[in-house]
Design a protein that fits this description.
This protein is an alpha/beta fold. About 40% of the residues lie in helices and about 20% in strands. The protein contains 16 helices and 15 strands.
């Protein structure tokens, strides 16, 4: 078993395991088990691992609600928006965004959002630091004791750190997410958020007794999935996208080829363009957020079968619902197709009224993820993914020639877990289980 490694994702609902041969990149076995979040998550993990318990474990987690991030910025359309985008790419659920000097009511709103981490941004390098310093001071005196990632004006960083340290606020300082207007620098903040998640957040969720679980976790699941998507895109040598339809959210990931004109020319956004990104739609899901899919579909003027609203209400009221008839399975697929379509529209279009932020025309591969797709017949899963690819009324340029595949073995998260220590094996795992469909 010396060449085997267990890659596991402890999710809020299910714990999923993939056993990978580090010598060949073969996927040896997969398994899943309900996450034992109400007792000790290690019980579900050990049950899923089964006979491979002696192998090393690489672990990511979104249990206990995942990573909740608040962004405190300087100006809503610049640094706060840049911080919001970086937070999503770091695998966080952004629960609060504020811009400008923090006030008493602003601190109250921040506290009410219950963030696990605060991303403090503001100013370009060498630019204005007044608001950044003010906000650091207010965070220090607010007694929130929430860890802060400092990713603003680097020239103000020593003073910001001093203000936080004087009040015993835990922090990690890193490079500016927006060093210059229109230049987005996500990776340092993304790594710092991962560090804070591992050091301060996982243990605080009390998901397990002892330190074993905390010691095993390497990052938030969405962050590691994006890493896997990046590895796949680099190997593919082209644009790709992923839509993950879950019970509570629908996430869209994309890795696109940078457009020099959009990055530096007259079309450049002041908050920068994130070419490797993730968006989270918290109102679109198969169970907890099923009614949100119906509401969003009506706003988007999408066709709704007459019985689907009642079906969505049933699923929202009973998140453990499992379809048992052909009609119920068809309702699940209809909700999934709507969720994928709306999530793609939002991902591509950006904020209402703004120019499209994502040009998906060159996307060569669309990967579908989520239990509704993995458990469906291939033809039904293909029909769900065809919905966003054929969305002519979406208001954005569609992929011109994308192939659609389903991550049947759930290998994107394992590839992300393997990428730093075993990059070649991560590529081989993805190639064998996803790209072989495209390369045939």
């Amino acid at each position: 078993m010396t060449d085997l490694v267990v890659c596991a994702d402890v999710g809020s609902t299910f714990t999923k395991v993939a056993v990978v041969d580090l010598g060949t990149g073969d996927l040896i076995a997969t398994a899943s088990h309900p996450t034992t979040v109400h007792t000790d998550v290690l019980e579900g993990l050990d049950a899923a691992i089964g006979s491979y318990t002696g192998a090393p474990i690489y672990l990511c987690s979104s249990a206990g609600g995942g990573l909740r991030l608040a962004v405190v910025g300087y100006e809503s359309l610049v640094t706060a928006e840049a911080g919001h985008r970086v937070g999503l790419s770091a695998g966080a659920r952004v629960v609060h965004v504020s811009a400008g000097p923090l006030t008493g009511s602003g601190i109250a709103d921040l506290k009410a959002s219950r963030p696990d981490v605060i991303l403090l941004v503001g100013g370009t390098d060498g630019g204005d630091d007044e608001v950044l310093l003010h906000n650091a001071r207010r965070l220090g005196t607010a007694r929130l004791r929430i860890p802060v990632v400092v990713a603003g004006n680097v020239e103000a960083r020593p003073r910001v750190v001093e203000l936080l340290a004087a009040r015993d606020v835990p922090y990690v300082a890193t490079d500016n997410v927006l060093p210059r207007i229109g230049v987005l620098n996500p990776m340092p903040a993304r790594l710092a958020i991962r560090e804070v998640f591992l050091k301060h957040v996982i243990g605080g969720k009390k998901l397990s007794r002892g330190t074993r679980f905390v010691d095993l976790v390497r990052g938030a699941t969405p962050d590691l999935v994006l890493t896997g998507v990046e590895v796949l895109a680099d190997h593919l040598g082209g644009d790709l996208a992923v839509v993950d339809v879950g019970g509570a959210t629908t996430d869209v990931y994309s890795v696109l080829t940078p457009d020099p004109e959009q990055s530096t020319g007259p079309r450049a956004e002041v908050a920068g363009t994130l070419w490797r990104s993730r968006t989270v739609e918290g109102d679109l899901g198969m169970r907890w957020s099923a009614t949100g899919v119906i509401e969003a579909a009506r706003l988007e003027k999408l066709d709704l079968p007459g019985s689907l609203a009642a079906a969505a209400t049933l699923r929202s009221s009973d998140p453990d619902f499992l379809p048992s008839t052909a009609t119920e399975r068809g309702e699940d697929l209809s909700i999934a197709a709507l969720a994928a379509t709306i999530a793609f529209r939002r991902h591509a279009r950006g904020e209402p009224g703004a120019a499209p932020r994502k040009d998906l025309r060159d996307v060569r591969l669309l990967i579908g993820s989520g239990g509704v797709l993995r458990h469906a017949p291939a033809s039904d899963a293909a029909a769900v993914l065809a919905a966003p690819l054929g969305d002519l009324a979406g208001g954005y340029p569609l992929p011109r020639s994308a192939r659609a595949v389903v991550d049947m073995s759930y290998v994107l998260a394992p590839a992300g877990l393997l990428a730093s220590e075993h990059p070649d094996i991560a590529v081989e795992l993805l190639r064998r289980n996803l790209l072989n469909v495209v390369e045939q």
